[in-house]
Amino acid sequence: MLILRWDGEVARELPDEVVEEEPLEIRVQGRPISVTMRTPGHDPDLAVGFLLTEGIIRRRQDVLLVRHCDDNQDGNILDVLIDPDVAVDFQRLTRHVFASSSCGLCGKATIDSVHCQFAPVQSDIVVSAELLATLPDKMRLAQTTFNRTGGLHAAALFDLSGDLITLREDVGRHNAVDKVIGQRFLKGAFPPDQAILVVSGRSSFEIMQKALAARIPIVAAVSAPSSLAVEFARESGQTLIGFLRERRMNVYAHPHRIEFASVSEAKP
After folding, report:
1. Is 134 in the same domain as 252?
2. Whole-prediction pTM value?
3. Is 6 within a domain?
4. 142, 259 in Cβ contact below 8 A?
5. What residues are paired with 220 via a beta bridge?
6. Is it true that the peptide bond before 191 is cis, omega within 30 degrees of 0?
7. Which domain holds residue 232?
8. 116 is an active site residue
9. Residue 83 burial by CB count (10 A; 0-12/13-18/19+): exposed, middle or buried?
10. What is the mean pLDDT of the chain?
């Protein structure tokens, strides 16, 4: 598309690319359960990752088929067929998905509710701070759509050697995480409990919840965490890293999984 760009002196008409954004309706057994705004692409990963992190499915064999509905020409409706033996509380699910975020629950109650579905992580993996410092640049280099548009978030999984396992981009941070988790689930490489999740932007409670559902022990973000994300990580056994950039980081929870060359005690 053509845009008008001003450089402080002259306005010029120039070609530019913007990120595509479309609604995706997710259905289970033909029943709508969620509508999310997303960047089209890897829709089955997104839908399956969403169902996993909502606690609807647990095993690869729970998913029988993921298909776009024939009655939607834009490809914005996706139906997930699951094993009939999997019990789905559609009333609870749709009420939760479509409800306002101002649900009236305090943070502690929200954390306790998640822990009823997903137990805290138990993991003895250890990675070096030097290795972690290399991951944001590796993620950035793999963000092909961001390189063209500058308007996408990313989530990436790395193995303990720092090699990229998978990366997904989306206009929503949570969608990108769901896509990564869903991809590993559909590949049969689940849970990714020997991996590191790196996200662009900040880390929120929702991202930590999704990582816990996938049993990911280390989550790193290039920006700040929220207070509830920190509290959740500490109670969930997750190592949480923020401001991972320019060879710096803050560790907010469970630093025992990170190996530092040296550690000095904080001065009063």
Report:
1. yes
2. 0.80
3. no
4. no
5. 198, 241
6. yes
7. 127-259
8. no
9. exposed
10. 84
